[in-house]
Amino acid sequence: MKAPPFQYHRPQTREELSALLSSLENAKILAGGQSLMPMMNLRVLAPEHLIDINRISDLAGIRETADGIEIGAMTRQADVLSSDIVKARIPLLIRALEHVGHIQTRARGTIGGSCCHLDPSAEQPAMCAALDAELIVTGPEGRRIVPISEWFEGLLQSALGEQEFLEAIRIKPWAKGHGYGFAEYARRHGDFAVAGGAAMIKAGNDGRITRAALLSFGVEASPRRLSDAEVALIGQPIDKLDIEPVVTEARALDAMEDVHVTAGYRRHLAGVLIRRALHEACTTLERQP
Ligand SMILES: Cc1cc2nc3c(=O)[nH]c(=O)nc-3n(C[C@H](O)[C@H](O)[C@H](O)COP(=O)(O)OP(=O)(O)OC[C@H]3O[C@@H](n4cnc5c(N)ncnc54)[C@H](O)[C@@H]3O)c2cc1C
User: Fold this and answer.
1) Ligand 1 binding site (Cβ under 6 Å of any ligand atom)
2) Per-residue pLDDT tens digits for 46-95
3) 92 close to 127: Cβ distance less than 8 angstroms
4) I need a surface site. Which of 109, 218, 256, 258 has the fewest CB within 10 A?
5) Residue 265, exposed/middle/buried by CB under 10 A (0-12, 13-18, 19+)?
6) How far is residue 12's CA from residue 17's CA, in Å, rounded to a whole number?
């Protein structure tokens, strides 16, 4: 099937983009098109106007700022994956991106597109949640910063207003030497995950945990931080971790059911995968003050 008719717009600047978003009704931004075009071809979506932002070159790129690492919304997933800055400072994102689609889809697909589309199984918004990212958004009122905790508003629904666009994602990297781990279950490599988990930990010289981030995704409609378990890990010795509260919290999530798996099986996977992610985080951790 082919997409229904639409008018095509190709702004060259952010200002032109803002003007189009303010004046057009039923318009959609086109980034990498890896989610939007299939949805249009299947006629799940039928925007009257398509605003292609691929020519706005300053929406792409990765840079270090005083407030953290900013990844432009139009940065291709392949470019994030090969970025030396991201490899050195946000290794969890690299671990996760290796599981996103295929070489071909990563060459077109953007990190911003994934964070706006918000598939519950998408690795990139999930890692943004684990990393406490901030979303830099521009709209008619100017620029605003949205903490990731306020970004998810439900299935495929972000906090982005109709006349707004995502400019960049800002991540404050954890200190060097932190532990990180990622695990997901997908039916085939490159498929969307049925469920997944991510963990980050930091420990002092005494080998006790001083900071923890734990996250399950693909289980509920939006990625979920396991906040009680994060608190329970603080102060625990790395070599004698009580992992059961972590697994218990993951298994208590309000899991989705679909044609592939039952809610019960997804809850089971959530427990298994967060255990694996945390185990990997312990093995990558370097002890430091
Ligand atoms: C075969 C295949 C396998 C895939 N596997 C995976 C996978 O395993 N994991 C995974 O996470 N994803 C997967 N994807 C999806 C892929 O990661 C997409 O690239 C991503 O979901 C959307 O990014 P995009 O740049 O293509 O956005 P588009 O498809 O162009 O846009 C997606 C949505 O975001 C909006 N949007 C895009 N950019 C902006 C912006 N800057 N501001 C405001 N709104 C914006 C669009 O209007 C649209 O609603 C797969 C896709 C394919 C085709």
Assistant:
1) 28-36, 73, 100-101, 105, 109-110, 112-114, 116-117, 119, 122-124, 160, 165-166, 190-192
2) 999 999 999 999 999 999 999 999 999 999 999 999 999 999 999 999 99
3) yes
4) 258
5) middle
6) 8
Outline which parts of the chain fall under CATH 3.30.390.50: 179-284
Task: State the CATH class of domain 62-171.
Answer: alpha beta
Ligand 1, atom 23: closest residue by C-alpha: 113
Cα of 230 from ligand 1 centre, angstroms: 30
Question: Residue with structure tokens 């994060």?
Answer: 230
Is it the case that residue 271 has pLDDT exceeding 80?
Answer: yes
Instruction: Kindly report, as residue ranges, where domains of CATH 3.30.43.10 are found in the chain.
Output: 7-51
Q: How far is the CA of 112 from the centre of ligand 1 (A)?
A: 8
Overall size of the chain counted in residues: 289
Listed in sequence order, the residues at least 6 apart from 161 whose beta carbon sits closer than 8 Å to its beta carbon are: 137, 139
Q: The domain at 179-284 falls in which architecture?
A: 2-Layer Sandwich (3.30)
DSSP 8-state code for residue 253: S
How much is the average pLDDT of 147-166? Answer: 96
Question: Tell me, what amino acid is at 182?
Answer: F
Contact predicate 215/133, CB 8 Å? no
pTM of the model: 0.97
